[in-house]
Amino acid sequence: MVAREGMPVKARKNPTDEQLLRRMQHEPIAPHDPRARNDAYWALRHQGYPAALARRALRNTPPRFYREEVKLSGEYIDDIDPEDLLIVPKVNVEVQKLAVLVRPDLTEEIALNAPAWATEYTIWSEAISGFGVRVRPTGVRTYVVMFRIGGRGPQGKISLGKPGVLSFDLAKRMAREVRLEALSGTDPRPMHKSGELLRRAK
After folding, report:
1. Kind and range of the H or E element at 68?
2. Domains of the chain, residue spans
3. CA distances from 180 to 130, 184, 200 (A)
4. What is the reported pTM?
5. Closest by alpha carbon to 100, among 136, 63, 145?
6. Where does the record place the Integrase DNA-binding domain (predicted)?
7. Closest CA to 148 of 113, 118, 187
8. Which CATH superfamily is domain 108-201 in?
9. Measured between alpha carbons, how far apart are the two ends of the chain, in Å?
10. Among 24, 80, 165, 188, which one has the highest count of C-beta atoms within 10 angstroms of its own C-beta?
11. Sign of the dihedral through C-alpha 75, 80, 83, 88
Protein backbone atom coordinates (compact mmCIF):
# COMPACT_ATOMS: atom_id res chain seq x y z
CA MET A 1 0.00 0.00 0.00
CA VAL A 2 1.21 3.49 -0.86
CA ALA A 3 -0.13 6.52 1.00
CA ARG A 4 -0.66 9.76 -0.91
CA GLU A 5 -2.22 12.79 0.75
CA GLY A 6 -3.47 10.57 3.52
CA MET A 7 -5.39 8.26 1.16
CA PRO A 8 -4.27 4.63 0.79
CA VAL A 9 -4.04 3.46 -2.82
CA LYS A 10 -3.23 0.11 -4.36
CA ALA A 11 0.08 -0.43 -6.08
CA ARG A 12 -0.29 -0.55 -9.86
CA LYS A 13 0.18 -3.97 -11.41
CA ASN A 14 1.90 -4.60 -14.70
CA PRO A 15 -0.52 -5.37 -17.57
CA THR A 16 -0.93 -8.98 -18.60
CA ASP A 17 0.09 -10.26 -22.04
CA GLU A 18 -3.58 -10.30 -23.09
CA GLN A 19 -4.01 -6.66 -22.06
CA LEU A 20 -0.88 -5.65 -23.94
CA LEU A 21 -2.12 -7.46 -27.03
CA ARG A 22 -5.47 -5.67 -26.90
CA ARG A 23 -3.71 -2.33 -26.54
CA MET A 24 -1.50 -3.06 -29.55
CA GLN A 25 -4.51 -3.94 -31.67
CA HIS A 26 -6.07 -0.53 -31.03
CA GLU A 27 -2.97 1.63 -31.23
CA PRO A 28 -2.22 3.47 -34.49
CA ILE A 29 0.39 1.71 -36.59
CA ALA A 30 3.77 3.38 -36.96
CA PRO A 31 5.92 3.29 -40.13
CA HIS A 32 8.34 0.78 -38.62
CA ASP A 33 5.76 -1.23 -36.66
CA PRO A 34 6.64 -4.95 -36.96
CA ARG A 35 2.94 -5.73 -37.44
CA ALA A 36 3.10 -4.12 -40.89
CA ARG A 37 5.84 -6.58 -41.83
CA ASN A 38 4.37 -9.74 -40.34
CA ASP A 39 0.58 -9.33 -40.49
CA ALA A 40 -1.32 -8.93 -43.76
CA TYR A 41 -4.14 -6.99 -42.05
CA TRP A 42 -1.82 -4.36 -40.59
CA ALA A 43 0.23 -4.20 -43.78
CA LEU A 44 -2.88 -3.11 -45.69
CA ARG A 45 -3.94 -0.69 -42.95
CA HIS A 46 -0.47 0.87 -43.00
CA GLN A 47 -0.81 1.36 -46.76
CA GLY A 48 -4.04 3.30 -46.19
CA TYR A 49 -6.55 0.64 -47.22
CA PRO A 50 -9.92 0.64 -45.37
CA ALA A 51 -10.54 -1.82 -42.55
CA ALA A 52 -13.29 -3.55 -44.57
CA LEU A 53 -10.74 -4.60 -47.20
CA ALA A 54 -7.99 -5.36 -44.68
CA ARG A 55 -10.29 -7.79 -42.84
CA ARG A 56 -10.42 -9.90 -46.00
CA ALA A 57 -6.65 -10.43 -45.92
CA LEU A 58 -5.50 -13.99 -45.29
CA ARG A 59 -3.59 -13.41 -42.07
CA ASN A 60 -2.03 -16.87 -41.98
CA THR A 61 0.06 -15.84 -45.01
CA PRO A 62 2.61 -13.08 -44.24
CA PRO A 63 2.72 -10.06 -46.55
CA ARG A 64 5.46 -9.90 -49.16
CA PHE A 65 7.33 -6.68 -49.83
CA TYR A 66 9.39 -6.31 -52.98
CA ARG A 67 11.06 -3.54 -54.92
CA GLU A 68 10.24 -2.78 -58.52
CA GLU A 69 11.83 -0.34 -60.94
CA VAL A 70 9.34 1.99 -62.60
CA LYS A 71 10.51 3.48 -65.88
CA LEU A 72 9.00 6.85 -66.71
CA SER A 73 9.16 8.54 -70.07
CA GLY A 74 11.15 11.75 -70.19
CA GLU A 75 9.27 13.07 -73.20
CA TYR A 76 6.85 15.07 -71.06
CA ILE A 77 9.65 17.44 -69.96
CA ASP A 78 11.26 17.91 -73.38
CA ASP A 79 9.25 21.07 -74.06
CA ILE A 80 9.91 22.61 -70.63
CA ASP A 81 12.73 25.03 -70.02
CA PRO A 82 15.13 23.38 -67.53
CA GLU A 83 15.27 26.66 -65.59
CA ASP A 84 11.53 26.37 -64.94
CA LEU A 85 11.88 22.98 -63.26
CA LEU A 86 11.87 23.21 -59.49
CA ILE A 87 12.60 19.49 -59.13
CA VAL A 88 14.48 17.42 -61.65
CA PRO A 89 12.27 14.36 -62.25
CA LYS A 90 13.78 10.89 -62.09
CA VAL A 91 13.19 8.79 -65.16
CA ASN A 92 13.90 5.45 -63.47
CA VAL A 93 12.48 5.13 -59.97
CA GLU A 94 12.64 2.12 -57.66
CA VAL A 95 9.50 1.76 -55.54
CA GLN A 96 8.51 -0.69 -52.84
CA LYS A 97 5.36 -2.71 -53.47
CA LEU A 98 3.22 -4.90 -51.28
CA ALA A 99 1.69 -8.28 -52.13
CA VAL A 100 -1.07 -9.62 -49.85
CA LEU A 101 -3.47 -12.50 -50.37
CA VAL A 102 -7.05 -11.24 -49.97
CA ARG A 103 -10.28 -13.22 -49.96
CA PRO A 104 -12.50 -12.20 -52.89
CA ASP A 105 -15.88 -10.65 -52.26
CA LEU A 106 -18.76 -13.07 -51.77
CA THR A 107 -20.39 -14.34 -54.96
CA GLU A 108 -22.62 -17.32 -55.70
CA GLU A 109 -19.69 -19.24 -57.18
CA ILE A 110 -17.60 -18.68 -54.06
CA ALA A 111 -20.51 -19.67 -51.82
CA LEU A 112 -20.97 -22.93 -53.74
CA ASN A 113 -17.29 -23.85 -53.86
CA ALA A 114 -15.87 -22.51 -50.58
CA PRO A 115 -13.52 -25.20 -49.21
CA ALA A 116 -13.93 -26.68 -45.75
CA TRP A 117 -11.21 -25.94 -43.21
CA ALA A 118 -10.38 -27.57 -39.90
CA THR A 119 -12.44 -24.90 -38.13
CA GLU A 120 -15.67 -23.14 -39.02
CA TYR A 121 -15.33 -19.82 -40.83
CA THR A 122 -17.52 -17.27 -42.60
CA ILE A 123 -16.98 -15.40 -45.87
CA TRP A 124 -18.63 -12.00 -45.51
CA SER A 125 -20.12 -9.86 -48.23
CA GLU A 126 -18.77 -6.37 -48.78
CA ALA A 127 -22.03 -5.21 -50.40
CA ILE A 128 -24.39 -6.14 -47.54
CA SER A 129 -23.18 -5.69 -43.99
CA GLY A 130 -23.65 -8.78 -41.84
CA PHE A 131 -24.41 -11.11 -44.76
CA GLY A 132 -22.16 -14.07 -45.49
CA VAL A 133 -21.82 -17.78 -46.03
CA ARG A 134 -20.78 -19.98 -43.11
CA VAL A 135 -18.62 -23.00 -43.93
CA ARG A 136 -18.40 -25.82 -41.40
CA PRO A 137 -15.55 -28.38 -41.22
CA THR A 138 -18.00 -30.96 -42.57
CA GLY A 139 -18.35 -28.93 -45.77
CA VAL A 140 -21.89 -27.73 -45.06
CA ARG A 141 -22.37 -24.15 -46.31
CA THR A 142 -25.16 -21.87 -45.12
CA TYR A 143 -26.11 -18.28 -45.88
CA VAL A 144 -26.30 -16.29 -42.63
CA VAL A 145 -27.11 -12.72 -41.69
CA MET A 146 -26.16 -10.92 -38.47
CA PHE A 147 -28.23 -8.12 -36.96
CA ARG A 148 -28.82 -5.98 -33.88
CA ILE A 149 -32.36 -4.94 -33.00
CA GLY A 150 -32.53 -1.17 -33.17
CA GLY A 151 -28.83 -1.10 -34.03
CA ARG A 152 -27.82 -1.91 -30.44
CA GLY A 153 -27.87 -4.71 -27.92
CA PRO A 154 -26.74 -8.31 -28.40
CA GLN A 155 -26.08 -9.55 -31.89
CA GLY A 156 -28.48 -12.05 -33.44
CA LYS A 157 -28.03 -14.44 -36.33
CA ILE A 158 -30.42 -16.02 -38.82
CA SER A 159 -29.57 -18.97 -41.06
CA LEU A 160 -31.23 -18.25 -44.39
CA GLY A 161 -30.56 -21.44 -46.34
CA LYS A 162 -27.96 -23.45 -48.20
CA PRO A 163 -26.27 -22.32 -51.43
CA GLY A 164 -27.64 -24.26 -54.36
CA VAL A 165 -31.01 -24.64 -52.64
CA LEU A 166 -31.42 -20.91 -52.02
CA SER A 167 -30.26 -18.64 -54.83
CA PHE A 168 -27.62 -16.03 -54.09
CA ASP A 169 -29.82 -13.12 -55.20
CA LEU A 170 -32.73 -14.29 -53.05
CA ALA A 171 -30.44 -14.74 -50.05
CA LYS A 172 -29.19 -11.17 -50.49
CA ARG A 173 -32.74 -9.81 -50.63
CA MET A 174 -33.64 -11.77 -47.50
CA ALA A 175 -30.56 -10.41 -45.73
CA ARG A 176 -31.56 -6.84 -46.62
CA GLU A 177 -35.07 -7.44 -45.27
CA VAL A 178 -33.64 -8.82 -42.03
CA ARG A 179 -31.34 -5.83 -41.59
CA LEU A 180 -34.11 -3.32 -42.30
CA GLU A 181 -36.53 -5.05 -39.95
CA ALA A 182 -33.93 -5.14 -37.18
CA LEU A 183 -32.99 -1.49 -37.64
CA SER A 184 -36.66 -0.54 -37.30
CA GLY A 185 -36.60 -2.09 -33.82
CA THR A 186 -38.40 -5.36 -34.61
CA ASP A 187 -36.98 -8.83 -34.06
CA PRO A 188 -36.81 -10.42 -37.55
CA ARG A 189 -36.64 -14.02 -36.28
CA PRO A 190 -40.42 -14.57 -35.95
CA MET A 191 -40.85 -13.19 -39.47
CA HIS A 192 -38.30 -15.72 -40.72
CA LYS A 193 -39.93 -18.66 -38.91
CA SER A 194 -43.38 -17.82 -40.24
CA GLY A 195 -42.15 -17.62 -43.84
CA GLU A 196 -42.99 -13.92 -44.15
CA LEU A 197 -39.33 -13.08 -44.76
CA LEU A 198 -39.18 -15.35 -47.79
CA ARG A 199 -42.45 -13.96 -49.17
CA ARG A 200 -41.21 -10.38 -48.82
CA ALA A 201 -37.92 -11.12 -50.54
CA LYS A 202 -39.45 -12.89 -53.55
Report:
1. strand 64-71
2. 17-99, 108-201
3. 12, 6, 12
4. 0.58
5. 63
6. 129-189
7. 187
8. Integrase, DNA-binding domain (3.30.160.390)
9. 68
10. 188
11. negative
